[in-house]
Specification:
This protein is of the alpha/beta class. The chain is built from eleven helices and nine strands. Helix 4 links the parallel strand 3 and strand 4. The structure holds N-carbamoyl-L-aspartate. The site of N-carbamoyl-L-aspartate has 11 residues, from helix 2 and helix 6.
């Protein structure tokens, strides 16, 4: 397979064949998961540690399930129960993990760059599960897989990413991935929530929702990340919804077969109306969660193979 890296820290810098290789492997895991079969031998005897310094429901659970489906021993370390609260530094944590002979380390941290630092200090393969406002590579991969399953391709699609782009590691990873595979990316949001350097990322910026959604194939909504805002960047949630919330009237500007995405957790009534989020035909939000498990299985498999230089073995 074309993915031969020791860690997965970011999408930026990955080459299109590497991304395609992970998506193809994830697709085979998606089919395997739907068939109800498991593949418990691939990570048998391996230890996967989920090290989460920030809250998470779906990402942590998804990595846990992915590891268990491949037969790994999975340990969840959350910050509230670890010694980090007692003043242990990130590097002390790294040497503790080395002593435990952990093979795969999944890290979420509020500081951008924390997984990169750990990757230099631990023997394990490190997977970035979201670092500050930097990147969230497995989220971008699962989004790409979901889009590819619905549209058959990524090339030439118009993808509108709407809302709090400034604080979103999901948006950043998606921009790198989609641009590298040939999608046209549009960012839509108030000027206060769009990064200043957005034009250098090769995207189009819109501050008007109706114009930005015009003709879009994919509408990806982002949560208003109030916990990351240093000051009030938006007036009120009601006002925000009035201008940037996704409702049926706004969605009508996109292509009739446009799909609706959201990485979760959703703020219903703030960035997205429930009727749209729950649209049985156009919303693919639940499928994103399903693809999350398949993508994480693919990433764990690819990194474990890399470590042991096992001959390639596709699961189906
Ligand atoms: C995102 C995250 O944590 O970056 N959620 C996720 O991983 N599914 C987005 C968010 O918190 O809004």
């Amino acid at each position: 397979m074309d993915f031969a890296r020791p860690h997965l820290l970011a999408i930026e810098g990955l080459h299109p064949p590497e991304i395609h290789a992970l998506l193809d492997l994830a697709e085979s895991y998606a089919l395997l998961n739907r068939s109800g079969k498991t593949q418990r031998d691939i990570l048998r005897g391996r230890t996967l540690i989920n090290l989460f310094f920030e809250d998470s429901t779906r990402t942590r659970t998804s990595f846990e399930l992915a590891g268990k489906r491949l037969g790994a021993d999975v340990i969840n370390m959350s910050v509230s129960t670890s010694s980090v609260n007692k003043g242990e530094t990130l590097l002390d944590t790294a040497s503790t993990l080395n002593a435990m002979h952990c093979d795969l380390l999944v890290v979420r941290h509020s500081q951008s760059g924390a997984p990169n630092l750990l990757a230099q200090k631990v023997d394990a393969a490190v997977i970035n599960a979201g670092d500050g406002t930097h990147e969230h590579p497995t989220q971008a991969l699962l989004d790409a897989l979901t889009i590819r399953r619905h549209k058959g391709r990524l090339e030439g699609l118009t993808v509108a990413i709407c809302g709090d782009v400034l604080h979103s590691r999901v948006a950043r990873s998606n921009i790198y991935l989609l641009a590298s595979l040939g999608s046209q990316v549009r960012l839509i949001g108030p000027p206060t929530l769009i990064p200043g350097a957005a034009d250098r990322l090769g995207v189009e910026v819109f501050h008007d929702m109706d114009r930005g959604l015009d003709g879009a194939d994919v509408v990806m909504m982002l949560r208003l990340q109030r916990e990351r805002m240093k000051s009030g960047l938006v007036p009120s949630e009601r006002e925000y919804f009035r201008f940037f919330g996704l409702n049926e009237a706004r969605l009508a500007k996109a292509k009739p077969d446009a799909i609706i995405m959201h990485p979760g957790p959703m703020n219903r009534g703030v960035e997205i109306e429930s009727r749209v989020a729950d649209d049985p035909v156009r919303s693919v939000i639940k499928e994103q969660v399903e693809m999350g498990v398949a993508v994480r299985m693919a990433v764990l498999d690819a990194l474990a193979r890399q470590r042991s230089r096992l001959p390639s073995s596709r699961p189906v």
